[in-house]
Amino acid sequence: MDPREIIARRAARELQDGFYVNLGIGIPTMVANYVPEGMEVILQSENGMLGVGPYPVAGTEDADLVNAGKETVTEIPGTAYFSSADSFAMIRGGHVNLSILGALQVDRQGNLANWMVPGKMLKGMGGAMDLVASARRVIVAMEHATKSGAPKILDACTLPLTGSKVVDTIITELAVMRVTVEGLVLEELGPDATVEQVQRLTGTALIVAESVRRMF
Asked: Taking residues 185-189, what's their average pLDDT?
């Protein structure tokens, strides 16, 4: 599988029946395609849509149905539309069970940096700060390292933070790690990953669980 598909498929296993879920731009939006059959999950988009469906089949796109990343999406029975103000009232009111976001950096304390790279043009910070502060659980779903092989999981973030100590779980194509007060606990390995490989590509010491499972 493509690394992005591995991440999205594994992140989808964190969904639970009846959950209200917000999916961030990038890999997290792919999770909508892997909701387990028979499970009812209501996806919320901060631009004002509750009931986001999977990506449309080519040729069936509706330009008026877009998520917060301006990607075309589909709707499910019961989909509702509302203002951005109402959308953020839902988020800030603590009604989102789970938020799955991408990241530029995340560290051993669960600090998250995903909105700004110094020196680069920005469209704005988006809704990530509200989501990580208000969602009941936050998962980071991202590729384990940069294209050059530099760690994105660090001892301490160096980029401006989106939220402090907000991340509960990190899912990459190589591993699943849980954030604890002692540090990051390595609980699962990707299909072909090894503990040594994961540690080599991680910028902080990992705590290896007694029984490390395979994702799939």
From this structure: 98
Residue 168 lies in a domain: yes
Catalytic residue among 14, 46, 173, 187: 46
Which is nearest to 43 in space by CA: 61, 57, 59, 29?
Answer: 29
Q: Could you tell me the two tokens for 196?
A: 């040594």
Distance, CA of 34 to CA of 15 (rounded, Å):
10
Domain of residue 138, CATH code: 3.40.1080.10
Residue pLDDT, tens place only, 15-34: 999 999 999 988 999 998 89
Establish whether 46 is a catalytic residue: yes
Contact yes or no for 171/139 (Cβ under 8 A): yes
d(CA 48, CA 195): 42
Q: What range does the domain containing 103 cover?
A: 3-173
pTM, to two decimals: 0.94
